[in-house]
């Protein structure tokens, strides 16, 4: 068959063969990574080296090697030594739903361009609303990521709470939101996209434990009013990204009610704890929120990107992007829940509901409970190990599976320790056995880990600390004199 023809593009035999080969490769990959058999989590290269390698492959490589090369040249989330970012470890079944969705490519902007994923989305979001503790009038949707979901929620909040209709009239009053200074940067970005500016982003300080200092809310709110800012929403982090610390949602809910604010919970990472019998107490008060965001691609083992955005009063999800939806109030049985595109930022959207639906059908809530509970438990155990070793120091007692800690040595100054921990992290990256990240908290440089992988054990984390110690000792050793 000729190359470059439609016939060859659609050659069924080739599709079958390549597909089977890919599934075999991925099944081997899962086995080799989850077992920890592969020596590396990441085979790190400088950006310029990586670029050259793919340029060369484009011109000279054998396309038959493409799958293997991609697998080799990516960070292996399934490896138990993958303990870095909050990107989740996808359940293998969700790779199959991803494949199915890619080929069928129903864009979902209107009902008939995605009948089944639309129906599934309704079933799933109704279910999660119930888990959150919302009542019968709640409604949710799926959208492409926590960042977009937070923006969408804040747009709904503005629509519901601003005195003017900004959607039709543009901004005529300085509006504002209140949020912890530790919140994910996307909340700040969303507020700026909405035109709130510096004045409209009221950053509430955190306590020494990195949770929003709710004793300051009254203060900051009054100051904003004095400055002519109409505060319309408050955002609680569940948890905040850098430290993994949850805000006190009960206290924020009380304040929001008292002041008539929209209460939004950014649970992109840890909203998933609603599924954990052991840890759902961290989210106490979430049922009083007006909206909640939960990422499927973080703690719920789905591929990027899929995020649930849930509204306590579903009507608000219908009014975000339209001038009027009054008819919905009078004819609720006529609600066109099935025209998803009216309620989401996206026009075309991937069939992301498939992942949630099949996971829940095959494994039930229990699989989410197991994953969250196991990883949060592991966070606590790892904290104990760090405490027991005088070479290490925790930034703060963890509330989740995110931990910030650093190597310490009594003879070194803060600057020296900062630069030492930075070097440790760089060497870990270049070594590639473990993958972890770093953060700065109040001028102190920490190594940061998100324990996202259900195959990670205390044994792996013990090896990690040993490795860090060895690296630190090498880095601290005096330069050999020749
Ligand atoms: C990850 C995260 C986000 C951003 O979500 P994306 O899905 O990456 O867009 C927002 N808020 C918090 C608290 C997060 O952890």
From TrEMBL:
It comes from the Bacteria. One of its GO terms (molecular function) is pyridoxal phosphate binding. One of its GO terms (cellular component) is cytoplasm. The modification N6-(pyridoxal phosphate)lysine is found at residue 298. One of its GO terms (biological process) is carboxylic acid metabolic process. Its cofactor is pyridoxal 5'-phosphate. It holds the Pfam family Pyridoxal_deC. Keywords: Aminotransferase, Decarboxylase, Lyase, Pyridoxal phosphate, Transferase. Belongs to the group II decarboxylase family. This is Aminotransferase class V-fold PLP-dependent enzyme. It comes from Flagellimonas alvinocaridis.
């Amino acid at each position: 068959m000729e190359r470059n023809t439609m016939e060859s593009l659609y050659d069924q035999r080739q599709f079958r063969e390549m597909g089977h080969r890919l599934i075999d490769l991925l099944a081997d990959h899962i086995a080799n990574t989850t077992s920890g058999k592969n020596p590396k989590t990441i085979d790190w290269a400088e950006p310029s080296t990586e670029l050259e390698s793919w340029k060369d492959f484009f011109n000279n490589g054998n396309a038959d090697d493409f799958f293997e090369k991609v697998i080799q040249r990516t960070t292996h989330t399934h490896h138990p030594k993958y303990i870095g970012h909050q990107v989740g470890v996808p359940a293998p079944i969700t790779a199959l739903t991803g494949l199915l969705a890619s080929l069928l490519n129903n864009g979902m902007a209107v009902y008939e361009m995605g009948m089944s994923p639309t129906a599934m989305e309704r079933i799933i979001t109704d279910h999660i609303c119930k888990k959150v503790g919302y009542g019968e009038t709640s409604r949710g949707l799926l959208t492409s990521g926590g960042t977009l979901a937070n923006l969408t929620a804040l747009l709904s909040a503005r629509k519901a709470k601003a005195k003017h209709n900004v959607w039709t009239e543009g901004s005529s009053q300085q509006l504002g939101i209140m949020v912890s200074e530790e919140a994910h940067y996307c909340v700040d970005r969303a507020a700026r996209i909405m035109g709130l500016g510096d004045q409209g982003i009221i950053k509430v300080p955190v306590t020494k434990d990195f949770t929003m200092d709710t004793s300051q809310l009254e203060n900051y709110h009054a100051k904003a009013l004095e400055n002519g800012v109409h505060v319309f929403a408050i955002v609680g982090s569940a948890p905040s990204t850098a430290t993994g610390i949850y805000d006190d949602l009960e206290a924020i809910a009380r304040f929001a009610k008292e002041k008539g604010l929209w209460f939004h919970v950014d649970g992109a990472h840890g909203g998933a704890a609603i599924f954990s019998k052991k840890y759902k107490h961290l989210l106490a008060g979430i049922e009083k929120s007006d909206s909640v965001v939960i990422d499927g691609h973080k703690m719920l083992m789905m591929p990027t990107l899929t995020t649930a955005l849930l509204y306590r009063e579903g009507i608000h999800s219908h009014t975000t992007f339209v001038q009027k939806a009054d008819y919905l109030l009078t004819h609720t049985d006529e609600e066109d829940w099935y025209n998803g595109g009216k309620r989401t930022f996206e026009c075309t959207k991937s069939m992301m509901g498939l992942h949630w639906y099949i996971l829940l059908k095959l494994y039930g809530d229990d699989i989410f409970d197991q994953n969250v509970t196991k990883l949060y438990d592991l966070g606590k155990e790892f904290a104990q190990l760090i405490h027991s070793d005088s070479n290490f120091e925790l930034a703060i007692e963890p509330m989740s599976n995110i931990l910030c800690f650093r190597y310490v040595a009594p003879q070194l100054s803060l600057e020296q320790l900062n630069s030492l921990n930075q070097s440790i992290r760089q060497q870990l990256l270049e070594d590639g056995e473990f993958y972890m990240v770093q953060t700065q908290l109040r001028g102190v440089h920490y190594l940061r880990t998100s324990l996202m992988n259900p195959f990670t054990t205390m044994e792996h984390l013990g090896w990690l600390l040993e490795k860090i110690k060895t690296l630190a000792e090498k880095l601290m050793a005096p330069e050999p004199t020749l």
